[in-house]
Amino acid sequence: MSWDIFIKMKHRIALINISFNPFSLQDLPSVLAIERLSYPHPWSEQQFIDSLNNPQIMADLILLDGKIVGYALSLRAPDFADLLNICIHPKKQRRGLGEALFNRVLQQLQSIKITTIFLEVRSSNQSAFLFYQQLGFEIIDTRKAYYSNGEDAKIMRFQSAIKK
Ligand SMILES: CC(C)(COP(=O)(O)OP(=O)(O)OC[C@H]1O[C@@H](n2cnc3c(N)ncnc32)[C@H](O)[C@@H]1OP(=O)(O)O)[C@@H](O)C(=O)NCCC(=O)NCCS
């Protein structure tokens, strides 16, 4: 499905051509390239392969003018989901694409009656933290030395306004 969406930017309004696709193994080279540009500790190819082979994982792509510019993976449980990874190409950030992708994921989860989303974010990842906060996520816990480099994780929760 292709959507023409008006996205408000700081000082202008741009018409951009966004579409969403399921993320499958054939998309891995494009996704890995974005992942490696975006994270100091990127997921390995095997992590993506294992995720794409897991039927509980929902994996989505966002495309801009037909080109992959981001992706999201979420793990579904009966009553909630974990947002495992959401990423937008560094050159395409701050245009509303991350928010559009999150809204797509949220819509899909709501359609299967999931209204609570959890995630973990590195304490050093201030831009992701601000992004999640702006979407309505709240910090519910901190896990000390959660990551292999000793870094803490903030645990955040999003509760959709739509009741089950
Ligand atoms: C986090 C991420 C997905 C956000 O994607 P994005 O497309 O840039 O986000 P949006 O343009 O939709 O931003 C929506 C709002 O979130 C907030 N936000 C997003 N990035 C921000 C930043 N770097 N600093 C401050 N606020 C930010 C702002 O309020 C922004 O609205 P504004 O641009 O009108 O001020 C993107 O920065 C990214 O891919 N980062 C690298 C991967 C990553 O860290 N993922 C999260 C793993 S936990």
Question: Can you walk me through this structure?
Answer:
Helix content is 27%, strand content 38%. It is α+β, with helices and mostly antiparallel strands and 164 residues long. The protein has one domain: Aminopeptidase, CATH 3.40.630.30. It has an eight-stranded mixed beta sheet, sandwiched between helices. The radius of gyration is 16 Å and the shape is globular. The mean pLDDT is 91. It binds coenzyme A.
Topology overview:
Elements: E1 2-8, E2 13-22, H1 28-38, H2 45-52, E3 57-64, E4 67-76, E5 81-88, H3 97-111, E6 116-122, H4 126-135, E7 138-143, E8 153-159
Parallel strand pairs: 5-6
Antiparallel strand pairs: 1-2, 2-3, 3-4, 4-5, 6-8, 7-8
Coenzyme A (COA) is lined by residues 38-39, 86-88, 93-99, 121, 125, 127-128, 130-131, 134.
- Residue windows where pLDDT falls under 50 for at least 5 positions: none
Oligomer: single chain
Query: Strand count, sense and closure of the main sheet?
Result: 8 strands, mixed
The string of secondary-structure elements, in order, is EEHHEEEHEHEE
Task: Record the strand order, biggest sheet.
Answer: 1-2-3-4-5-6-8-7
Mean pLDDT: 91
- Global morphology: globular
Give the CATH superfamily.
Gcn5-related N-acetyltransferase (GNAT)
The CATH architecture is 3-Layer(aba) Sandwich
What is Rg? 16 Å
Summary keywords:
single chain, eight-stranded mixed β-sheet, 4 helices, alpha+beta, 164 residues, Aminopeptidase, binds coenzyme A
Nutshell version of this structure?
The chain is α+β, with helices and mostly antiparallel strands and 164 residues long. The protein has four helices and eight strands; from the N terminus they run E-E-H-H-E-E-E-H-E-H-E-E. Coenzyme A is lined by residues 38-39, 86-88, 93-99, 121, 125, 127-128, 130-131, 134.
